[in-house]
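In the laboratory, one determines a bound structure by crystallizing the protein with its ligand and collecting diffraction data. In a computational setting the workflow is compressed into a single prediction: the sequence and the ligand go in, and a structural description comes out. We illustrate the idea with adenosine monophosphate.
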Amino acid sequence: MNVIRTLKELHQFVIEKKQAGKEIGFVPTMGFLHEGHISLIHLSKKYADVTIASIYINPSQFNDLNDFNKYPKNEEGDLRLLRVNFCDAAFIPERAQIDSLQKVSIDLGGLDMIMEGICRPGHFQGVVEVVYRLFSVVMPDKAFFGEKDFQQLQIIKKMVETLKLPVEIIGAPILREFNGLAMSSRNSRLSKKARDNAGFIYEVLKSFVNTERQILEKRLFESGFTLEYLEKHDFGGQRRLFIAGVYDGVRLIDNIELN
Ligand code: AMP
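The predicted complex, in structure-token form:
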């Protein structure tokens, strides 16, 4: 696997593959990789010829400096995981290189005025900024994003549509831990006890349709979960239920499709 740290090396790698007629699949991440990320690598390997994963903790999408500083990191472990899953290249840029790239700001048509957009002001403009910058240098034919961040996936689709970028955006289902907790790099900050007990979040989502909201809110409260939102939204004809809140000092999000 190629470990690429500069824009120059990346450019050489990308141009060489493109000249050989290869389609590039791209998986942007913030590192501390888990099976959820790896499922995106597998999808990219299935649908593209060459897979590039990026590892970059983007400061502009954090509205809370403390959250940014505490974001878990494990570059060595990430590279090992990418290697054993046959990822072709890991792009690990320095902040100055990303900051040197052209950025955009677009009208997200209200998509950023709900849920994460309200709870994390500026978050989605930060996401758009970094994903656009990464797309501009990776030049992927296909890019893969998890439904774990479903609102983010819609926002990336909106950005691609608005700017008419020549990249296909492919969403992937949420991978969960044994108890139903959605896999997340942030789960590593939960205590073992909290992580083992955290299956109640998925249980609440699954029982939403048949249970009174008050009962579900009580269940969340009694489990020690500080609810930020529990809301239904339609995206492209698909109705989903979304939850966010703080559990054991860690902010968690999850969602499911509602039939
Ligand atoms: P992150 O490193 O948290 O920025 O995530 C990088 C990509 O992995 C995003 O597209 C996420 O939606 C996706 N992802 C994170 N967790 C999961 C999961 N549990 N299942 C599937 N995809 C995920």
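Residues 29-30, 36-37, 39-40, 145-146, 148-149, 172, 174-175, 182-185 surround adenosine monophosphate (CB under 6 Å). Keep in mind that any predicted model is a hypothesis to be tested, not a measurement.
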